[in-house]
Design goal:
Elements (H helix, E strand, L loop, with lengths): L3 H14 L8 H6 L1 E7 L3 H15 L2 E7 L1 H9 L6 E3 L3 H9 L9 E5 L2 E6 L14 H5 L4 E4 L5 H12 L3 H4 L3 E4 L2 H9 L5 E5 H6 L3 E6 L9 E6 L8 H7 L3 H9 L3 E2 L2
Length: about 260
């Protein structure tokens, strides 16, 4: 008894002093966390939606923003993500073809519009139409846009300029950015007199103004598909994906300049 008492007491103290998370299985601890890879243009609206979801559920959502092309390749190379939201169908298709998303979970979440922007103090005025004088307006300056070879916003922009007959005139004057928010920043800082971004981006930055909107017929329809990744183990991820389409979130998307797809 004299030797057993202190040992029993020591064991009891170890249990009492051990941190409570040590008693939670790793899978259960992870279940309340969700990692999202999302197109850069979604940042302001998605941050707000995720904060509301987390406040309602106790979840902890971590969001990595970037060009859809870069995010898709990161997922392909094993980066941990539970949900992927792309700014076009092509990069979602890319992952789908490689069986890296759960196809049955895929939904078309949002749409957007493409606009031409300038610094807020700029007096530039151009009406976007076939053959509009964008090259002459730029002069020796550059047009800020996301990489037109890989990034959705850049590809939409290139398609619009091609259909309007001015791409060959400006293709040598492009300031290529890694994503649409980087292109937005160039114009906001006055480093480029004009830029092509989504309407939602322009509304998020007070240092730029919309010069004009590209006709919807000048480029492929802008669609943001969302899906669960094949590797997701988050118990909260399906709920978050469903929440993004809920009526409570619709007002957030609209206020930030998106169109909600039903």
């Amino acid at each position: 008894m004299t030797s057993g008492g202190p040992l029993h007491l020591k064991c009891l103290l170890v249990l009492l002093l051990s941190p409570p998370f040590a008693l939670v299985p790793p899978a259960a601890a992870h279940a309340a966390n969700t990692i999202v890879f999302a197109a850069a243009s979604l940042k302001d609206a998605f941050d707000e939606a995720a904060q509301r979801f987390d406040a309602d559920t106790g979840n902890r959502t971590t969001i990595s923003y970037g060009a859809s092309s870069a995010l898709a390749r990161q997922i392909e190379h094993g980066a941990p993500a539970d949900i992927f939201v792309s700014a076009d169908a092509e990069w979602m298709d890319y992952l789908d073809e490689r069986k890296l998303i759960r196809t049955e979970s895929r939904v078309n979440l949002l749409s957007n519009r493409l606009v031409l922007i300038s610094p807020v103090a700029s007096a530039i005025g151009i009406r976007i139409e076939h053959g509009f004088p964008i090259a002459g307006t730029l002069g020796r300056d550059r047009l800020a846009m996301a990489d037109p070879d890989h990034v959705p916003a850049g590809k939409y922009g290139r398609a619009a300029l091609e259909s309007l007959g001015v791409w060959t005139l400006v293709s040598g004057k492009i300031a290529r950015s890694e994503n649409v928010r980087a292109a937005l920043a160039l114009v906001a800082r006055g480093e480029a007199p004009l830029g092509i971004v989504y309407r939602s981006d322009a509304l998020a930055e007070r240092k730029v103004r919309i010069v004009d909107e590209f006709p919807a017929s000048s480029h492929p329809r802008i669609v943001y598909p969302a899906a669960l990744t094949a590797a997701s183990r988050s118990a909260s991820a399906p709920g978050l994906l469903a929440f993004l389409r809920a009526p409570a979130v619709r007002a957030i998307w609209l206020r930030h300049g998106f169109t909600v797809l039903d």
